[in-house]
Write a structure and sequence with these properties.
about 350 residues, Rossmann fold, about 30% helix, nine-stranded mixed β-sheet, alpha/beta
């Protein structure tokens, strides 16, 4: 099983906990020194950064949400000078006010590292042809896949979105081994191949995110394209696609990069931390981002912690269950929770 950063990806649980503790203290000092937004938010919650004790005080930190981003649009939450921002991405929402994520050079390097780990975990090796099908623009998908592929030493086909016939032709001409995108577009490629009675014999790995998909859909794509399907996790607020991790070939959960993020599961309504194995809302704290590190960000995603033990792949980081829905979309019918 290839690793991109074997030392970091196989740290012991004690080493990871110690690293998280130190980095959490550092990020609290950083945001309070550099951002009026964070100083106000922590002060309102009664958190004094001078006495903050790291993981021991994690649950004293207030939650963040998308509303914080929207209220501080465009860069009111930033923890760096504008001249140090080298890139930005954003996601639009139903309110019309987008969520903006700025990046410093260090943030882009962190993003590339997280994505490169995902490529390696899927079995990608230097020189493999990687076809990137998400768009290159304000949405982070295309650029995240690109930054990580470059870091991993892959041969990048930066195709962007659409023009499926051309995508298929390029994959055939250049021998694409890895495709990145969303599952719905993988289905479109599969349908066009069937219509044209063609195949992509070089294609072996599919890395898909942004849309939740079922085990049945994974199997359908596996059969239709003859590839192994990987579920990648990340969002604008955490720094983009792949920042939170991906499942490995064992497919026993999403490996979260514990050296870069703290992941909690809490009760969606009360905010109470839940024990491992219990479903709830995914909450994320960024430890190594510079321009805008989120603290206890409520993602709205439903999952649970599957394991903190070493995986069959050799990685030691926390494993989340696949994201099973958005808690904001949950319907309660006769006392039963449904996720449409």
């Amino acid at each position: 099983m290839p690793f991109y950063n074997p030392q970091a990806e196989t740290l012991s649980r004690d080493e990871l906990t110690s690293l998280q503790d130190a980095r959490l203290k550092t990020v609290i000092r950083h945001v309070c020194e550099r951002s009026g937004f964070f100083r106000r938010k922590l002060a309102a919650a009664g958190v004094d950064p001078r006495g903050f004790r790291g993981l021991e005080d994690l649950h004293q930190l207030p939650f963040m949400g998308k509303d914080d981003f929207r209220a501080e649009y465009p860069l009111g939450m930033s923890c760096v000078d504008k001249r140090d921002i080298v890139e930005m991405h954003m996601s639009s929402g139903s309110t019309g006010t987008p969520v903006v994520m700025p990046y410093t050079e260090a943030d882009l390097a962190q993003w590339a590292e997280c994505m490169a780990r995902c490529y390696a975990m899927a079995g990608a090796t230097r020189g493999d042809v990687c076809q990137i099908t998400p768009g290159f623009g304000l949405f982070n998908g295309g650029f995240g896949c690109y930054h990580g592929a470059r870091a991993a030493g892959l041969f990048v086909l930066p195709c962007g979105a659409g023009n499926t016939a051309r995508q298929i032709k390029l994959a055939q001409d250049f021998g694409t081994r890895i495709v990145t995108g969303v599952v719905s577009y993988a289905v479109r490629i599969m349908e066009m191949l069937e219509e044209q009675k063609q195949k992509l014999p070089s294609l072996e790995i599919g890395i898909f995110g942004a849309e939740t998909f079922s085990s049945e859909m994974r199997e359908r794509i596996h059969r239709g394209l003859g590839i192994e399907v990987f579920d990648i996790y990340g969002m604008t607020e955490t720094g983009g696609i792949g920042t939170l991790g991906m499942d490995c070939p064992d497919h026993s959960g999403l490996h979260v990069w514990d050296d870069h993020y703290i992941t909690e599961i809490v009760d969606h309504d009360t905010g109470r931390p839940l024990p491992d194995g219990e479903f709830g809302e995914v909450v994320v704290t960024a430890l190594t981002r510079e321009a805008l590190p989120v603290l206890r960000f409520k993602t709205g995603d439903r999952s649970r912690i599957v394991s903190r033990a070493t995986c069959a792949c050799g990685r030691t980081h926390t494993r989340l269950d696949k994201i099973s829905g958005r808690l904001d979309d949950m319907l309660i019918i006769s006392g039963v929770n449904f996720f449409p």
